[in-house]
Amino acid sequence: MIKTILFDLDGTLLNTIDDLADAGNWVCAQHGWPTFSVEQFKHMVGNGIPKLVERFSPAEARTPEHLTATLAEFTARYDAHKEDKTAPYPGIPELVDALNAAGIQTAVFSNKADPLCGKIIEHYFGAGKFALVRGSRPNVPTKPDPTGVYALMADLGAKPETTLFVGDSDVDILTGHNAGLPAMGALWGFRGEAELTAAGADALAATPMDIFTYAKKH
């Protein structure tokens, strides 16, 4: 049986896209750059905030110095407004409670900057609902590199044969597989069934409780 579930954050536990898009478009507007739709932002996120900033920055603003400055602008704006429109997906709080009640360990592993992850998870779920919450850290490659997953699993005492990775994008499916874990796709997230299936998802969850059902059967 699955004893540990590692969750992606954005697009899996929390619908963060409106606040991410608003912060990105605010930065773009400050510089007179083109802005983007929420749908376009859904395809820019997933590889960490530095990559998101690079993707919404025009070509002439992608020097290392420029990207560093823009990243600082975006991070400050997003941090101040990250709870304006964000909310857990329907059924996610109940899923987390059910998993905890069943003795299944839960953790969060995100490409979002580590300090932002802890704050936003505690805001929406309270303290102690997840055994560990971990985001992108200096000198640790972002998903789909498995390095961070290995470190997280070591800290959790989790074994590959009883651990499941859950996320909404191909990055998450690849992350799970790169770490030798089964990977389940969340259909309510930013990317959708076609991308998850193409990436080789071992199972798909149409609702949050499908994750609980899968965990109990495997």
UniProtKB/TrEMBL annotation:
Gene3D superfamilies, A to Z: HAD superfamily/HAD-like, Putative phosphatase, domain 2
Pfam families in UniProt: HAD_2
Membrane spanning residue stretches: none
GO-annotated biological processes: DNA repair
GO terms of molecular function: phosphoglycolate phosphatase activity
Cellular compartments per GO CC: cytosol
Name listed for the protein in its UniProt record: Phosphoglycolate phosphatase
